Amino acid sequence: MKPYITLTLLLLNTISFAQPKGDIEYRDMVYDDHIKTVQLYPFAEPVAAQTAGPIISLRGNRHLILEFDELFNDIYDYRAKIIHCNAKWQPSDLSPLQYLKEYNEYNITDAEYSFGTLTEYVHYKFIVPKPIISGNYLLVVYAGGDEEDVIITRRFMVFEQWVSFTDKLQIMRNAPYSLTRQQLQFSIDYRNVDLVNPMEYVSVNILQNQRWDNAKMDLKPSFARESQRILEYNQYGEENSFLAGNEFRYFDIRSLKYFGFHVGNVSFKKDKIFAWVETDKPRAGLAYSIENNIKGQYFIENLERKIPDIENDYALVTFTLASEKLNEPVYLSGKFTDWRHDTNTRMQYNEHTAQYEGTYVLKQGQYDYQYFVGTAKKENEIEGNKRETKNRYDILVYYRS
User: Fold this and answer.
1) Radius of gyration of the chain (CA)
2) Burial bucket for residue 59 (CB in 10 Å: 0-12, 13-18, 19+)
3) CA angle, 255 as apex, 248 and 368 as ends, to 5°?
4) What are the strands, taking DSSP E only, across 53-102?
5) 379: closest CA among 344, 341, 342?
6) How many other β-carbons are positioned within 10 Å of the β-carbon of residue 183?
């Protein structure tokens, strides 16, 4: 069984560990409730690129673009900086002069007011300067000149294509838990690069659907065929496999005049728009069904207006899940929540209607989502784990000499 999508990378990571700087978290986070719709993706045609991961080639011509909205009616002074990180997403000891061409403070000057929307906001864009070495990076956006007043952090990666996969790249059918889990088997060909002691100094991170919250980190080769310069990864065990999950649910709110897919109703009241996603039901006990989804991502688009960045409106979108009350908390999950399971994404149970409910402020577009249950082993208790699920897997190969 072939994985849905794979991506081969080699990221240089040569610096020793350091302690985290300040109070920021080295992951995708939004620190201000007025900041919405944060996207970081390779700069290209927006709709096609918005669902791509924040990964670019060191040798290529593409840059990353950061976009976000602030639900205010005035433009504010925001700035950005870039922090180099090691393979475990801890800040390295490198000076910015060693990985950037210029001083590490960038003004975000591309800002536009929303036009013709009930919700007033300012849309910001920022072309991220490309570092001069490959590796992991954290983009930090802060207010004014105060580097402690952080509003956004976003991970991104710059790679060099040093290695490739052999034809053994597949999901292991005979692996333990193969009915509910997916375990990758692959081999890395490093004939085009001289790696010293790769069994010790090469490590692999694997992402499922661009998620870092369940990533398999720091995987070492299970066997090295040095004469052929091949590293094999055939690691059995629950700790190295992924819950298969299920295809993502999705809804389409690109239009406010005509109800898109899985949208039950839209209502305009004074200065606010309300929308209701059709009521969902648990799927764990149902047969697998193929869905046309975008692997947990979302994109911003409008079917009636020409400039989605500033003409798309915001709506208070309510989700409902008809279910008995579970012992564990239930969360709405997807890229638009940054895969976070906290008080902001937790669904509330309504005893009178016997359903979970949650309302979120979302910009017009198409969104993938799922319902996750509190503990890691039970997270797909509502959605189910189907071995046929077409997940996307990104394999990132790191070398630290």
Assistant:
1) 22
2) exposed
3) 10
4) 55-57, 64-70, 78-85
5) 341
6) 23
> pLDDT tens-digit profile of 277-331?
999 999 999 999 988 889 999 999 999 998 999 999 999 999 999 999 999 999 9
**C-alpha triplet 124, 126, 130: angle, nearest 5°:** 165
What global pTM score does this model have? 0.93
- At 43, list the tokens: 């700069």
What letter does residue 96 receive in the DSSP assignment?
H
Residue 152 tokens read as 């956004």
Quickly count: other Cβ atoms within 10 Å of residue 156's Cβ.
21
User: What are the CA-CA distances from residue 89 to residues 30, 34, 61, 152, 160 (Å)?
Assistant: 17, 27, 25, 16, 18
Q: What is the rounded CA–CA span in Å between residue 186 and residue 393? A: 12
* DSSP string across 185-232: EEEEE-TTS--SSHHHHEEEEEEETTEEEEEEEEEPPSEEETTTTEEE
Dist. CA 316–CA 267, nearest whole Å? 10
Instruction: Note whether 82 and 157 are within 8 A (CB).
Output: no
